Task: structure prediction
Amino acid sequence: MKRNHYIIIGIICFVMTVGICVQVKTVDSLNTNSGVQSMAENKLRDNVLKAKEKYEASYEKLEKSMNELESLRKTAAADNNEATSIEEKISEANKLLGLTEIKGKGVVIELDDSKLVKSNEDMNDFIVHDLDLLEVVNELFNAGAEAVSINGQRIISTTAINCSGNIVKVNDEKLGVPFEIKAIGYPDKLYGALTRPGGYLELMEDDGVSVSISKSDDISLPKYNGVYQNDYMQVAE
Amino acid sequence: MFIVTIILGCLLGVAVGMNLPTISYSYSGYLAIAIIAALDSVFGGINSILQKHFDIKIFVSGFFGNAILAMLLTYLGERLNVDIYLAAVIVFVGRMFVNLSMIRRYYIEKWNNKNKITK
Result:
């Protein structure tokens, strides 16, 4: 046995343990809910994870292409008056559609399940439901909010908020408590409309849900990270 | 003597591996099979050191060759919808047990000889 043989064995062991550690970490991060699972269930979970990864990769690609398109549009429009005005129109339209990140004044509402659940009372009164979110969003738009997001999901014209067991789905993304609803609009008006006596937030607070609302001068909302569907609609002449 | 380098390598590996990011789920199956192949190579290497016919070329080429072949087989199995990686796991783990038993036998014989001499 020469000396460098020992070094090579050490290196090989090093490579192997690095691999083992990475694998263990990966498996740990994915199988959070352990327990008895059937083979079929595992396979399904496997497929879901793979499909999700594929979707994320494709979405990243799409986003990259969109950015490229935008920069191309900008350079193309740089020395053309007509094109510049069209470019401005496009970015204005994207802002209204929720396809760009925006910031501005507004209010931030935080909703969380109540910590003090008494066993002899109905659990349902103490947790935040999809309908609660719907009601709050509705109230915000009614008070003149220009843009609203829930936990990073932008509310757009085709957003659906619905119940999915112990979580809420917004834009088909699963969200859980605590909910942070951000709204851009005239802060005093939004704040006043939501905290008015007999308003929905007060009703929720009476029920035991923990509610907090605050005005803010600097709120930034994410963009809608989905795709607008337009397979069936056509412009009416 | 070689045990020291093995332990040192493993400790360094744990220290570095725990700080690396996780890999994507689709590749974790390949890494798993590569790890099994690598473990087999390491046990084989230890065994051949004890039997005194250790060759560094065989060891290194076996380490990488087996890992790569196992990953390729896993990929092929995924394409063909046959769990070929099971065959690789069975072969590698089986060999691991054989090597381990050889290592065990070597040390037990050594121990027995020592006892005989002292008696």
Summary: The mean pLDDT of chain A is 84. The beta strands of chain A are 102-112, 147-150, 153-154, 161-164, 167-170, 173-175, 179-184, 210-221. Residues 44-97 of chain A form one domain. Helices of chain A lie at 3-30, 39-77, 81-97, 130-142, 187-195, 200-207.
